[in-house]
Amino acid sequence: MASSTPSSSATSSNAGADPNTANLRPTTYDTWCGVAHGCTKKPVQFLLEVVDILLNYVRKTFDRSTKVLDFHHPHQLLEGMEGFNLELSDQPESLEQILVDCRDTLKYGVRTGHPRFFNQLSTGLDIIGLAGEWLTSTANTNMFTYEIAPVFVLMEQITLKKMREIVGWSNKDGDGIFSPGGAISNMYSIMAARYKYFPEVKTKGMAAVPNLVLFTSEHSHYSIKKAGAALGFGTDNVILIKCNERGKIIPADLEAKILEAKQKGHVPLYVNATAGTTVYGAFDPIQEIADICEKYNLWLHVDAAWGGGLLMSRKHRHKLSGIERASSVTWNPHKMMGVLLQCSAILVKEKGILQGCNQMCAGYLFQPDKQYDVSYDTGDKAIQCGRHVDIFKFWLMWKAKGTVGFENQINKCLELAEYLYAKIKNREEFEMVFNGEPEHTNVCFWFIPQSLRSMPDSPERRERLHKVAPKIKALMMESGTTMVGYQPQGDKANFFRMVISNPAATQSDIDFLIEEIERLGQDL
Amino acid sequence: MASSTPSSSATSSNAGADPNTANLRPTTYDTWCGVAHGCTKKPVQFLLEVVDILLNYVRKTFDRSTKVLDFHHPHQLLEGMEGFNLELSDQPESLEQILVDCRDTLKYGVRTGHPRFFNQLSTGLDIIGLAGEWLTSTANTNMFTYEIAPVFVLMEQITLKKMREIVGWSNKDGDGIFSPGGAISNMYSIMAARYKYFPEVKTKGMAAVPNLVLFTSEHSHYSIKKAGAALGFGTDNVILIKCNERGKIIPADLEAKILEAKQKGHVPLYVNATAGTTVYGAFDPIQEIADICEKYNLWLHVDAAWGGGLLMSRKHRHKLSGIERASSVTWNPHKMMGVLLQCSAILVKEKGILQGCNQMCAGYLFQPDKQYDVSYDTGDKAIQCGRHVDIFKFWLMWKAKGTVGFENQINKCLELAEYLYAKIKNREEFEMVFNGEPEHTNVCFWFIPQSLRSMPDSPERRERLHKVAPKIKALMMESGTTMVGYQPQGDKANFFRMVISNPAATQSDIDFLIEEIERLGQDL
After folding, report:
1. What top-level class would CATH report for the domain A142-389?
2. Which residue of A has its CA nearest to B503?
């Protein structure tokens, strides 16, 4: 397919094209000099060929006879698969080879949109979202000023307002921004809290204030600790609160640890409540946590990166009851709402804090003497300078589905999780990690191989059980038929964490996953 | 175009489609339920219609008879243009309307790829890069683990290695990561420096270490100060070093300020040298700064977000001489190399620091007992959790152009800047902000209206001159023919900052810009 016989073309850096497919197509990219003079015939032809490859990929993604992945080890891909060489070189490749590279990149990748891919919280391939992202790339602009992203800046403002309304804040003029992922959104929340209570940190640093302490649960996302380290609090000052057997914060332990910190002369600043933990899908009791935050005058953040989508569902939003009492909320539409990666919002109840916290007034970008209302420029409230347009795909999906469309899609995923739970809870081949109906789409379970079924609990059994999920996962990736994650948690041996966020998944896909685990685990 | 007459379709949430265009097309998105069962005929048809809109946009972007923008004030767009309503609603819109929304989003946006768009450091619309980004969206995966992004993770590793080689580091096993923009890359550099010298900050926070001080020039990017605020140093501990008339750091002032900080009992930690400042395009004297950093044992970071591209040019890379002595480098391919936003790398000379600094070992994501070599998982060295795939478009462009292609493209942009400088330096209508040939593609100048040409320097003249650029820029945006930025700098009145990073720009576009400034400024 990819011929690279040297041609006699004008520039020495050209590789030749396959004569059978050459017609409109130039041999290499640098012969597209017509672009500078407005000729786009060849580039458009090239893009159409790429689109053909992509649409073929989209078709196959939804075709269950296609594998989820074709696994290769790093050394295999690095050594170079047939015709696919990852190394970069001084001279250009032929455009024929570039098309082959595109095909191979998809071939050796993972189909995260496949209805049987359950490995991550972000799954699916929403077609409207995909169209939105293609448009975003084509527009190739930057969110920092209204000047060069007028439509996107307004879409972001309108969408953030809508999200704040759905959270339930009654004030009109809150704030927020789309950030590159939930970890950064959570980082923003801590910065906002610090600025609200100790604005002098901005100029004088953490050395100028008392020993500030952050609280989050032992089941919460590691990004709170990571932000604690980055922002200069130190991980020792990120106190982990105990959870009950369902992975929910125990409010009494939170209060005890706040008092303990105060006794040490430390200053409690911030509590993170999680709405939808990563592994168990647990919802912390926000009302009780909010009571404690009010009592001790602490900033309440709700990390609803994973659970935020449930706010769109009249049936499930009660699980986040009390979220309207938070001062800030992380909510990732790229998870439960099926928006393409990346799409994460940090919402802040009070306007002005993000701006105050991050503003540096760079004259070259945020000129106060522009001809339009510069309050629409967003760059001075971000920790980024340039900022990718994450809003459009989400806005377009919302237009195309309506709020009710998201509601239906989320309800459907939760029904599938209930189906899975009902299917395996009483079977001897499976053991649930915690009891009771799933609150989110997380269903956590062990597969118990024949050899362990009659064995009583013991360190040996736990040790053997710990190896089961990794073994099955390895076989699963080799066979490429489906993908699901596993991990240990606390002193619990490795277990499978099933999550469903792809509206293309059906009961038959759940059945398939369970059968596949049984098939792969039968001889363990 | 967008009919929304209610139809008698099965679901109550459907809006009707124009009967003339209905054929294959469903009326709303939720009638695509076939996707779940593997039928993708209608979604593929929809994507093809979007592609048609996008290719039309691409064609027009390179057509100089098309305007760069069709400017509207925020209130105008918010009130709703004909058929284009930004508000979100509960019910879905028809797919016809979704296509109209796509067209209108592009119509009211800014063509950053237009050969006459000079407003930002990131310009252009590279076709291979665009194809790469379309593929990236379609693959919709996440950089945190090899497991779900095997090809992209390896491409990143290979590209980072290549970039480190080009920087000139002789050690084999450095490190780096692609981050969401130069500001975050610069933030990483400060975190790395802090971890190298004071690893205890990770656990104990900034209160546990002496008063640490960062140094950067008064012309450097504001992200250094912003990171200083965020990471808990405080902006008072980000010391600004004086620059000469070309915007380059004065090494003697750096050394004096280091000594001053030490005298106060503070601890100098980190120096940022800029290779290509935002406004002047100045290159700090890295060799001299490196000497000072060695003398005082400080971390040297080079912010080459803008200037890094020149490393690809044998003719221009001497401007960054000494960069190989840095401990870390920021380099944004999305600027001078014309890669689509976002694409920014933080390169670190020593392996292990990013990992040590950011590692939290989340068990659910980075299982040590996976079947592949988990050292390829990248998530634990990032401050993000999920991370967008920024590498593919860049890798694909490199394949298609080769190193020599980037070199040619960058040399060409620099030649255009020289052309512009030569064109206006001796004309009475223009006054240069600093003397001498441009080192980068930044050309900074005042347009002097007739009324000010014979007026000697005075506060009144400066005050009037200060208003000239904003007025011309406002007229320019209203007419939509071209775009260039302006800003003040220090005590200098507003001036134009011309930058060229779009390889589609030609001398005729430079001529056009100058004529347009003269035309719009003739009556001022």
Report:
1. alpha beta
2. A36
